[in-house]
Amino acid sequence: ANFDTALKTGMVRTNRPSTNWAFFCSATVYNAINNFAKDRMETVPGSYENYGMHVKGYMTPFGTLKIIYEPWFNTVGAGSTTTYDLCSGIGVLMDMDQFEFVYLNGNGVNRNTQVLTNRQANDADTYQEETLTEWGIRYNGWDGGYVLYGITG
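^ that's the sequence the OP posted. Answer follows.
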């Protein structure tokens, strides 16, 4: 019930409804979901492979949630003397439709793709050009989504 309540809080938005949700989680959280939701889980081998990892679908009243195991949440920090990991009980719910490709801007200058000429060294006997694109990924879904933490099993 708590998991469904958290999903409702994160997934139900009035301004931008979405059906493309992903839940990135640690092994602890993934295992907890598997244990309580065995009859509600389905492996989706073909349709979610664009994330490049094993994905399961969790049916909710708000749409199907793609559950993705993220090993980064299981890493212990450098110099740690304990196997306890602060991030092991974390899961992050994100609207995948809210990611966008953007060109970087600096000092009012759009740093879109450009061809830079005469990039060779001064004493070189060759001519060299460089194609440069400065870009990033922006997430616009901050009015939805959720971070779950403290899940132990």
